[in-house]
Amino acid sequence: MSRLKQGDYEVVSARLVARLHWLQGTMVVTNIDTFREVILRAAELLGDELDWTCGPLGRGKKYDRSGRGAKGFFFAWNEPNDNRQGEAWISIPGDLIDSLPLECFGSVCLLLQQFGFKATRIDCAIDDFSKKITPELLLEKARQGNFARFRYRAVGEHPPSYQFYVSPQVNSQGEVEEAMTVYFGGKGSDKKFYCYRKDLESKGETDSIRFEARFADEQAHSRFEVLCECYKNRGFRDSLVIVGGFCLGAIDFVDRSIGTRLDEHPRFDWWQELEDALGGLRIPVPRAVPTVEKIADWSHKQWETSLRIFELVAGTAGLFEFVGKLVESGTKRIKSRHLALARSAISSEFNLINYSNLIM
Length: 360
What we know:
41% of the residues lie in helices and 24% in strands. The protein is of the alpha+beta class. The strands form three sheets. The chain has a ten-stranded antiparallel β-sheet with strand order 4-7-8-9-3-10-14-13-12-11, sandwiched between helices. A two-stranded antiparallel ribbon has the order 1-2. The longest helix has 42 residues. The two termini are 41 Å apart. 31% of the residues are buried.
């Protein structure tokens, strides 16, 4: 049996990896102390350190306070009072979910369900390492109307049922390639389906075609409930097959030139083959989460020669002026997750100079 490394997955014979790639929703806050306990327990399971002081936030409605974890856990809340019911908004992004063992994320879902969490967004993704089905193929079938589970409207009609765009992406060799994304579902739809080249989007880290179904509102919450029942009654491993089924079940590709009714249109063999491969899903290995140490390692590898070249060209004073401008630009672009990462390093008494002496 051949074995090869694909990003952070160990590929043996199975073709697919399925993953839940985003979870977002709301919950009622009846007691602020209980809410804090839930968030702290969720952060512990997620392995995230929290900053509770991020200020007001607008997410469909205005929340008086918000917090964020160094790894991306994001939440906001209004405390209950005599005039209103308290409410919270919670978001767990894909990069954080990818960094977790299945058991940890499943436990977070069960914790949130216990306290009345209502999912408003769930993204289900599949990576196909065979790369047999491309965005170009799906666009061709879309133009022919050979798809189901989305209403067919041609591009230009309003609202369109499918669209595509092409954007330049830098591949793992540093070369620019044109990358196509095709997606189904109009603006405001509670179900959308995407197909794009993950190998280009991840610069070769994940060598696959990515299929991604994004569900909103009741479509999202009904799937969240199914997943929680699976976690409780069937185990975490089986949840991957369910996530994969949610993803591929969002759409179908059929030959409308045969038959007159939907149930008479045969499914294309290549799509049936993909669905059959769901039984061979493998468990994704948790991905590494950025740390200040890893940023320092990357900076050491990427900058040292370049900075020496700049010093030779502009002199030491010119080099420091250049670095100062970079820092000034970075100050304008820095996000709260970056600040949380810095606070985490400071709280752990990370010493950048001592660390640089170790790696140089």
